[in-house]
Amino acid sequence: MVQIKALGFVATNRPEKPQLEEIRCVRANLTDKCEAYRLKVRTHSTFLKVPFKVWSTRPLHRGMRGRGVSVGSFFCSGHWISGEKLDIACLKNLDNTLHVMPNLDQIRAIIKHYGPIVFFHPGEAYLPSSVSWFFKNGALLYRKGDSVGLAIDSEGFNLHREGTNDGEYWIDLPTDGRKERVNHENLESAELYHKHGKHHNLTKKPPIFSDST
């Protein structure tokens, strides 16, 4: 008997079962293990009286020899514990021939030659930072009609996720002594990256910033 596996969950706002063409299952030998990656939604179900979380997924086996291929699905649960096996899968690349792929030294040479270099004026007062640094160090979330801003979670979990750019919400600098520090940002936390390969990434981080002369 052929075993099949589901590639993800189907979300719907209708009481009827999803149409058959909306569901994707494949033979188990064509799948690989996946893992919960980034937490996208964290809320609490008022109907079930339990917490509810949604994560993006990625292949468990990655890198040069990893065969897992992400399908862009998500995983959701109210009681999942980090490290537990997921009951959904990702696809598997059955052809792992790498003879046409550049090796690590070649990739580094390409990045060194073609990679971006960002120059700043020696007197530049406003530098970049990572988004998480900006949130952690005092950025505030305001809502129209409220005079006091709310601290933002470092992963942005409490940011408004619906609607349009209608001016109902906005992000601003802290109002205390941290304002100047946050306004000038934090170069050490900033990063650029380069993606390479069929389904694996190679990340290039600083030092790639330089003052202009």
Could you walk me through the main structural features you see in this protein, from its secondary elements to its overall organization?
The chain has 213 residues and is mainly beta. It has three domains: 4-92, no CATH class; 104-122 and 191-211, no CATH class; 131-189, no CATH class. It is 10% helix and 27% strand. It is built from three helices and twelve strands, in the order E-E-E-E-E-E-E-H-E-H-E-E-E-H-E. It has helices at 104-114, 131-136, 179-183, and strands at 4-6, 25-27, 31-45, 50-59, 68-69, 74-77, 89-92, 118-120, 140-143, 150-151, 169-172, 209-211. The strands form four sheets. The chain has a five-stranded antiparallel beta sheet, with no helix packed on it. The chain has a three-stranded antiparallel beta sheet with strand order 10-9-11, with no helix packed on it. Strand 9 (140-143) and strand 10 form a beta hairpin.
Number of strands: 12
Order of helices and strands: EEEEEEEHEHEEEHE
Summed over residues and divided by their number, the pLDDT gives a mean of 80
Q: How much helical structure, as a percent, in the residues?
A: 10-25%
* Biggest β-sheet: strands ordered side by side in the sheet: 5-7-3-4-6
Major beta sheet summary: 5 strands, antiparallel
Assign an overall shape.
Answer: flat
Oligomer state equals single chain
Measured between the Cα atoms of the first and last residue, the distance is: 70 Å
InterPro entries: Vps62
